[in-house]
Automatic annotation (TrEMBL), chains A, B:
The lineage of its organism: Bacteria, Pseudomonadati, Pseudomonadota, Alphaproteobacteria, Hyphomicrobiales. GO terms for molecular function: oxidoreductase activity, acting on the CH-CH group of donors, NAD or NADP as acceptor. The keyword Oxidoreductase applies. The keyword Ribosomal protein does not apply. Gene3D superfamilies: Medium-chain alcohol dehydrogenases, catalytic domain, NAD(P)-binding Rossmann-like Domain. Residues 18-331 form the Enoyl reductase (ER) domain. This is NADP-dependent oxidoreductase. Keywords: Oxidoreductase. CDD domains: PGDH.
Amino acid sequence: MSKNRMAVIKQRPLDVPSQDDFAVVAAPMPTPEPGQVLLETVYVSVDPYVRVAIDDRTTTLFGAAQPLDTPLMGKTISRVVESRSELFHPGEHVMALSGWQKFAVADAESLQKLDPDVAPLSWWLGVLGTTGFAAYVGTTQVAPPAAGQTYVVTSAAGATGSIAGQIAGQRGARVIGIAGAKEKCDYVVNDLGFAGCVSHHAEDLVAALAEQCPDGVDHSFENVGGKPLEAVLELIKPGGIVALCGVIGSYNQANRTPGPNLWPLVRIGASIRGFRLPDYQHVREQFIHDMLGWLNAGKIKHREEVMTGIECAGEAYNRLMTSNSAGKIVVKL
Amino acid sequence: MSKNRMAVIKQRPLDVPSQDDFAVVAAPMPTPEPGQVLLETVYVSVDPYVRVAIDDRTTTLFGAAQPLDTPLMGKTISRVVESRSELFHPGEHVMALSGWQKFAVADAESLQKLDPDVAPLSWWLGVLGTTGFAAYVGTTQVAPPAAGQTYVVTSAAGATGSIAGQIAGQRGARVIGIAGAKEKCDYVVNDLGFAGCVSHHAEDLVAALAEQCPDGVDHSFENVGGKPLEAVLELIKPGGIVALCGVIGSYNQANRTPGPNLWPLVRIGASIRGFRLPDYQHVREQFIHDMLGWLNAGKIKHREEVMTGIECAGEAYNRLMTSNSAGKIVVKL
């Protein structure tokens, strides 16, 4: 009997994913061809874009939705078990796209080698991976604040928002978060150094945000859509840019919720700029350099929630999509 | 009895304006102070932004809504009747902001002199005025197409859209319009030289637009919001920009309709850029130069609908907001 197992999509979630949507099945042990390596998955990343990729009701990032009964996609940190390439040796660690399977093969040339002495391996899926890179691109390329400007980050305690706000702070901006629960607001102000934070449960969110942003909002980083974005648009200043990293608020829906009325953009002369990371690979090296510097200097803090076992796909995606995680979710297989 | 009369806001329209929302009243004859001129209004311009400015239910361009019983605002072409400034002489024509009143005074320094030999005077309210300038800024500054690119213009037969599409065409773009009635589509293709046009009444607007834009949409010019914008976002390409000139579709509403879901911006890496003309005064002279060149060479066509009499404010704004006009509406007082 093969040692290999994978978590596959059993049925397409119609709303927030649950345990019933995924099944763990036995799988044949893959065999590397010349130029390939056999990988054992150590960590798999839990990311919002995957929720989009497994839905067949709307346009995805990838064209067609991921087929049923195939292993759930995901970036991984993997250990080389067997190598048929000069590029890697058994025992080395790589960043791969193996998804939710215990063993996988990959072309050696598609893999990025990781040095465990540089940073804990799981960080390459979070603050040093897609999560941190999205925050970096949004705050340095798409909507970079100047020193002294007011920068609003929605979903401020989330894995991406928390990093985005801290990077904007490193650039000298006065950062105001929007988050849900009081403890999340306390966290971003007290632990992450945001200048202020507003709960999106506030009765009059625009008024509450205006109190924290008396001169208006210069730019913002947006990951969710919905009421917080509407409030930002009411206060945005001429030339203001909303860096739109995602609209997580609508990923679970068959008919995506409408967005904000766009009149504020015309009234004031402001923009919403969607972005995707493949278009910013030219700054990835700089990102790694900057982020390692900030992490090593203790200037940027991040949290990780490590779940365990290939069986927890449903639970992990449920936590991600209900904003119940305390930081970046990674799963240790 | 004074010869002066003005059209004032009697009650705030709750939806599309009607004749009942305005009243024509007698007014005292104004007297110019030193440095001022007395103007007689020849033409007043009918523009969507005025609909926003007279509504007190939402944020306007101007802060508070225009007070009741004051003359409806509007750009005018006016004739100098009496001058207490060296800058102007009686009989000269100027562009002013007198609004819907027969006579008005203005500071001479706030006025722009017009040469009736350069172009018919009313054109300075349309193709050479705000309407044409909005089209120019959108297509040359905010979302300028490169030669060969596919450019979509919604409200394509409208006063602004028709000019925007023709400017994009002058830049070498392949221009596709979205309009309502079949005769509007015929007009933009047969008379204005658009490469194609789709009716927004099409059962599957995305499919109909995709047929006209087989390689996707590079940029677009948007003035309305609603379904046509949603269709454009489904087809927009990486780096694509929607130049957002207005969201006329929601100007009559107390609770502005929601906008499009913003996922397409993230999926593909595209932007919606609102703009306002005061931010582009530095290109106004170039605009006049370019537009006069195109007009004189017969490269850009435009239509004007001249209504007559100060009593027609309600009818004029009704026609504007129901898209029933055949071109730029100006009113001859």
